[in-house]
Amino acid sequence: MPQGSFASPDQKRRRPLPLPKGIADMQTFTPDSSVVSDVVPSPNYGDRAEGRAPDMIVLHYTGMPDAEGALARLCTVGTDVSAHYVVLEDGRIVQCVPETKRAWHAGLSSWCGEKDINSCSIGVEIVNRGHDWGYPDFPRRQIAAVIALCRGIMLRRNIVPQRVLAHSDVAPSRKQDPGEKFPWHSLANSGVGHWVFPAPIVPGDTLKSGAVGDDVRALQEALQRYGYGIEVSGKYDAATVEVVTAFQRHFRPAKVDGIADRSTLATLQALLAALPEETVAALK
Length: 284
Fold this sequence. Notes:
It is built from 9 helices and 10 strands. With 284 residues, it is α/β, with parallel strands linked by helices.
């Protein structure tokens, strides 16, 4: 599948954003970002653990048929799910939870050994039907809005590029969003996210399900060093397939199959080599 697919600009007429039922009387708040067009408060949030300041951005897709249904789910009591921001297909940005609060977007997840991702992150939901509903391309104006939003958050919160992640990165066994069509390279060109150009796909030896030995151990160690939650066992088990698949969705989207071919391995090594020295030291 071609990396970074875009849809043509959405020409639909701007419509007033419908408020989800049952929250129209909920107290609003001042948005944290100047690019926010609407505030639709969600009741689904709490306090960050130990007053933690967010130092990560996690990008999601909504994975629902339409924006109205997704926004209603994020803002309805009892769904136990929310996000700080929702980016609509026409480029409008809705804020649902203040950045100082802990939104419920990441679920069971981990990165660099940290397991309470909700407490350390800001969650951004990008309206897209997702893999279960046809997985359309992301419109250009929507991606431009995601970039503007994330750049502002990174500046305000001093978030480094390698801490802008996919939901599938922090929860590879459960999630696949925002998926292989998401144009991470375009974000990185604007300073959002960590990226290297993927190594070309060429014939050669691969590591795949059932493999054992030092080469598998080295792969698992490299993935763990980058931040993925993976056990170093030397066995290419189901969990390793899931993590490699998540890595490919983000960093080598031309072929997503969970098999560590030469391209996958070379791209991973290039990413590790491109990390800032202080990050490498902290991961040791």
